[in-house]
Amino acid sequence: MKTVVKTGLAAWGLAAGTAWSAPITFNTALPVYESGYVLREQFVFMKNADDPTSAKRDMEVTGLVSVLGYGVTRDFALFGMLPYFDKRLDMTMGGQGLTRRRLGVGDLTLLGRYTVYEYNALGRTFRIAPFLGVKAPTGDDNTRDGLRRLPPPVQPGSGSWDALAGTVFTYQTLDFEIDSQLSYKANREANGLQAGNVAEFDASLQYRLWPRSLGNGVPAFVYGVLEANLVYSAKDRVGGADDPNSGGTTLFITPGLQYVTKKWIVEAGVQVPAIQHLNGTTLKNNYVLSTGVRINF
Amino acid sequence: MSFRTFPPRMAIALGIVLILVATNVLAAPATYQLYVDGLSCPFCAYGIEKKLGAVNGVQGVETNIKDGTVIFIMKDGVTLDEAAAKQAVKEAGFSLRKFEQVRSASPGTPEGRAK
């Protein structure tokens, strides 16, 4: 059960570095200028349903994700990501409809990204940037409702310290940008549950739709965006044993649009699962809607 | 008919004033063109303008993303050091390919050097 939220939000969790005009669902290797800040505010809505069991579970997660990036040096940037969640699980139990819901601040992700290679030429750049991060259990992971302790997917926080690492490749020209990322998230145990580790491969193409030709100055760009996220999630471990109803592989496709100016970006995308091979009765992901703004300062 | 003549001291003072006024009218700020590699999106241009705008003595910065150039206009009498420009471009995350002075600071003004 936790898998679906974990898989659906995996890409967003690793999007902490996505502060530049860049992919919507993951990181980029583009620079944050030295001593400069970028702020990203993102509204995310995720819907998971199609429960094969009689519980007819239906889960919705609404999140406001704040990302702050800071250029420590021209090559090293730090990012912090803090989500605020409204998680709601509707299900049927004993013929009765039941809703379990929780609002709250989620877990804080801190990420350091270092550019190890760059090639710059007129109107284009290629960069490789590994990153390393940690997810701190800042969100409440032991909340209860009138029934009992809420299940882990409805808790705002996971309760565990988790580590994540990866490398992002970016090739940007005036006409288009291609990003790809390999990442791995190692989850640790908390409250008797160890969420399965997550491996992910992401790719993004951003193509300038407007203006068709460039004049003087710095005009705003409209990018058409197409992204793919291949997410593999290992089975969760509960009480030292694998949970057969967790884990699996999902391929998301994300079409989107970005309006990019010097000072800010506004964007929207819908992440839809093209392929889902999930274990047991794991809830399927229906879609993840994202819209947001990024600001340079 | 009689002509009034300026006393010599007044004529000298007037001459100095005229020279100063002419110098001021003709004063033009030094202007540079930087050719920057790696600049390929509007959002990236913000960083380079911020960094270059923070260089001492800068009056204005204008970026042309298509040809990867940044026009750099200095305050009167101040010139730009190539090393300072290169450092600012580097801190913005890009590379300076070429540094070109397109207009010199007008002569006769006290010349400073931006760092």
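qc> Residues 2-296 of chain A form a domain with the Porin fold (CATH 2.40.160.40).
qc> done
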